[in-house]
Amino acid sequence: MKKTLLITALSAGAFAVATNAYAGSNVDPEKDRKQFVDFIMAKSPKVPFEEYRLGAYIYNADKKAQYEAVDEFPPYLDAIDLGEELWNKDRAVYEKCFGSDVSKIRPKYPYFDDKRGEVVTLELAINECRKNAGLKPFKWGKGDIARLSAYLAYNARGQKINVKIDSEGARKAYNAGRDLFTKPHGQLNLSCAKCHAYNAGRRARANILSPALGHTTHFPVWRAKWNYLGTLHKRYTGCMKNMRWDPKTVGGPQSVAFRNLEFFEAYLSNGLEIDGPDYRE
Amino acid sequence: MKNKMIHALAATAVATTLMAAPVASQAAGADAKVVAEGKKLAFSRSKGNCLACHMIKGGSLPGNIGPALIAMKLRYPDKQKLRDKIWGKPELEVKYSMMPPFGRHAILSEDQIDKIVEFIYTL
Q1: Could you tell me if A40 and A178 lie in one domain?
Q2: Is residue A280 domain-resident?
Q3: With an 8 Å Cβ cutoff, is A8 touching chain B?
């Protein structure tokens, strides 16, 4: 308990320091995206752009071969079927919210809703749709939310990520996500960027650090470490805990802060194919 | 360019240490027990976790984010500077570096940092 308190206090302290050291960004998203892609790709000039949907596997042939072997009978297949059952069970409700073509839903998210002034993610939209129809919303992170999301991702495989930023609000959301990504936080004084930009491709012990370019393409993900299918925001939570940064102080799954981060990462990945659900170590 | 220089420096450092090895082992005045405790702290995932980023003699599966911890006496003639670096004095912080400020953020106690410094200084 004492340790938790200390970490929380430090998180807050570090945040205050970081805020002073790094001014809030207000960059041009498209220019920023191009710079980011160039920066990441310059580390591994032989890796073609399309391959960045594969995450850290682009950096290690052995691990990639293991991944390809798992992919012959991937552990997430049942989850896709269960996702389809969920869709069919409340089909009328979902079709009213999303339309009847299940291949056209995943590519619309995340997007910036100008009227709302917020980023809307697929998982958020699913639960809002359920709530508005009087159905119980799914729990965030894993289980049915991940299954339904996986079914919709699977049906959109091969289509490219195409997040648009064409309003001041969207630009602000991108910059807010970028701030969260770049500023050091938590007891270990890490930032997302330290692992997934500056040191992408290097190893922390035996783990290869993935580049942020492509992070959002393949979620939800069946992680061997979890042994279940989990959402992107579930992964964000785990990442923050590794940084000893209390995810609750950031906002938690589907908070505005997490959605901004997803929006930022998805925009960086524009032009990459949707490849979810997928398997990861 | 900067990387190349670091590599060259590390290589020189290795060569020099090898030549100076007998002298170095004699000069190592630190208590063996303290060094052993420091090593345990340095390798522990929940404490120093130095292996997450640094290659260290005797540790398996090291990361490669930071430089290998070799020839530390040569690289840090001033032991206090090495301690300050691990402690996380802001003026020694390298921008964008992954190195956590172990003392400043109370990740380790002052005593634990002392022990780790003794261990690192034997490398």
Answers
A1: yes
A2: no
A3: no
Instruction: Report the alpha-carbon distance of residue A137 to residue A144 in Å, rounded.
Output: 10
pLDDT, tens digit, 9 for 90 and up, residues B62-88: 999 999 999 999 999 999 999 999 999
Residues in A closer than 8 angstroms to B65, CB to CB, are 199, 202-204, 209
Domain end call among A100, A130, A154? A154
Interface pTM (ipTM) of the complex? 0.83
Instruction: From A133, A154, A175, give the residue that closes a domain.
Output: A154
Measuring CA to CA, which residue among A53, A68, A67 is closest to residue A273?
A53
As for how many domains chain A has, the answer is 2
CB pair distance less than 8 Å for B106 and A6: yes
Residue A239 annotated as catalytic: yes
CB within 8 Å: B65 and A202:
yes
Task: List, for residues A53-108, the tens digit of each pLDDT value.
Answer: 999 999 999 999 999 999 999 999 999 999 999 999 999 999 999 999 999 999 99
Q: Indicate which of B96, B102, B104, B108 best probes the interface with A, i.e. most A CBs within 10 Å of its own CB.
A: B96
Domains and CATH numbers, chain B: 2-120 (1.10.760.10)
Phi, psi of A104 (to 5 degrees): -105, 5
Residue B18 CA to chain centroid, in angstroms? Answer: 18
